[in-house]
C-alpha cells in the first residue's frame, strides 16, 4: 500500500513537472504582439538558425537591427520568427506606406486609452524590452521621426540606405542545396528541383509557390512574359518570379474558382492586411471564402497573422496579380468588386483600403475611371467619418484635407459631394470637448 502511494506521488510529481515544462515552452514561443499582423509560420518553413542568432547578437550589442536583402528572400518571415519566439511586446508595422507608421502608433495609443501617435510611441517606450518591427520601408527619412527612444527596432528592407539606423544583417536566398531540398519537400518530387531553384534565384517565396504548382501539375509551366509593374529598389529578380506566382494562382483557381476572386481583392486592398471578417463579404458563403483563403495560403499566395484574423499578400505576389489585371484590362471590374466588399465596412480600416483603391483608381484610363469616381470619393469621405467616430481626430483632419482637395480637383465647383467632403473635414476639425468635472462643494 505504501509503495503504491509513493509511486502515485512520483507520477503526480512527474506530471506536474511535465506540465510546467510545456507551459514554459509555450511561453517561449508564444508572441505577445502589442499590435500588428505578425505572420504565422508558413508551411514547410525552413528554420534559419544562423540568421536568428545574428539578430539576437545584434540586439545584445545595440537597439537596432536592419535585415537587408532582395524582395522575396524571406526577411519578413525571419523577423516574424524572431518576434514569435520573443517574450517581449511587439508592434508590427507594414511600413512600405509611411502613413501606416503614424496610424499604427495612433491605434496603439487608442487601445491604451490615449490619443495620438506620439502618445502611442511614448507608451511603447515605457514597456521593458519592447520590439518595433518596421516591415518593408523604403524611405529612411520618413522613418526617423518614429524611431522609439528605448524599444528595440527591427527593420526589413531592400534599401541599403537603412544601414544608418544600425547594424545590418544581410539576408539572401537559400543556398543551392537548401533551395533544391525545399522544392522537393514542397513538391513531393525529386525531378528538376535543382534547375527550378536556380531559375528562381533561390528565392524562398518563389520556391514555395513553385513547389505547390509542381505538386499539383507535375511540372512548372513557362508562361508568357508578365507585365511587371514598378518595383522597389532591390527587387531585381527575373520576371520568371511573377510567372511562377501566376502559375500558382492558376493551379489554385483550377481547384476553387473563388480563390481567384479572393486573390484579386487582396491585391487591390490595403497592403498591410485585410481582416478575415471583411473578406467574408467577397461571397455569399463565408465558409467558401475561408476555403479559398486556405487554398491561397497553402500555395504561398497569401498568409495569415498569428491570430488567424488578418490575411496579407507579399508585395511580389501582389505585383504579379496586378500586372495580370492591367494586362487583361480587368482592374476596373476588380475595383467594383472591392467597392461592394467595403460597402458595409464600419471600422477605421476603411481609410487604408480606400487609400489603396484610390491609387489603383488613378491608374485607370479615363473611360474606366469616370463611372467609378463617385464610388471611390464616397469611400474616401466615409473613411474620414469613421476615423472621427473612433476618435482619431489628427488622422481624420489630415485625411479630410486630402480628400477635400481631391474633390476640388476632380469635381465641378460647388458640387454636392464637395460640400459633403467639407462637412466631414469640419467634423474632424472640431472634436467634442472633453466632459467637464463638476466641482463638489465640501
Write the layout of secondary structure elements.
Blueprint: H1 2-29, E1 32-35, H2 49-61, E2 64-68, H3 75-85, E3 89-94, H4 99-111, H5 117-125, E4 131-135, H6 140-144, E5 152-157, E6 167-170, H7 176-187, H8 193-199, H9 204-217, H10 240-255, H11 257-268, E7 274-275, H12 276-279, H13 286-298, E8 303-304, E9 310-312, H14 315-327, H15 331-342, H16 350-361, H17 366-369, H18 373-389, H19 393-410, H20 416-429
Parallel strand pairs: 1-3, 2-5, 2-6, 3-4, 4-5
Antiparallel strand pairs: 7-9, 8-9
Helix pairs in contact: 2-3, 4-5, 7-8, 7-9, 9-10, 10-11, 10-14, 11-13, 11-14, 11-15, 15-16, 16-18, 18-19, 18-20, 19-20
Overview of this protein structure:
With 442 residues, the chain is an alpha/beta fold. It has 20 helices and 9 strands. A 6-stranded parallel beta sheet has the order 1-3-4-5-2-6, sandwiched between helices. Helix 10 packs across helix 11. The longest helix is centred in the first third of the chain and has 28 residues.
Low-confidence stretches: 1-8, 10-31, 437-442
Helix content: 55-70%
Give the helices and strands as they follow along the chain. Answer: HEHEHEHHEHEEHHHHHEHHEEHHHHHHH
What's the β-strand tally?
Answer: 9
The rough form would be described as: globular
